[in-house]
Amino acid sequence: MLQKMGLDSKSVKPSEIRADYETMLTRKTILEKTYKSAEKEAQNMQQKLNNVEQYLGKDISKEQATKHTPRHVGI
């Protein structure tokens, strides 16, 4: 299999491959935790925004979109 990939089987060290794999697995675990934390935070912020919109009785995102829309001035 290594020969098909163009690698010399004598130069490949299984211990280095295992160490690299363990390092990548650890990094993957850390990134998954970070992603899940960020996802929960985004959901929490969205819920807070929805609560504010409901409290004010209007859609803030639509109001903000109209504030940033350029208006054409006729001369």
Portion of residues in beta strands equals under 5%
Any idea what the shape is?
elongated
Termini separation (Å)?
Answer: 74 Å
In total, the number of strands is: 0
The helix/strand series, from N terminus to C terminus, equals HH
The rounded Rg comes to 27 Å
- Average pLDDT over all residues: 83
Helix content: 55-70%
Keywords: Coiled coil
Coiled coil: 28-55
What does this structure look like?
The protein has 75 residues and is an all-alpha fold. The chain has a domain at 15-57. The chain is built from 2 helices and no strands. The longest helix has 43 residues, at 14-56. The protein is elongated. The mean pLDDT is 83.
Please specify the SSE layout and strand pairing.
Elements: H1 14-56, H2 60-67
Structure at a glance:
Residues 28-55 form a coiled coil. The chain is an all-alpha fold. It has helices at 14-56, 60-67.
State the main characteristics:
75 residues, elongated
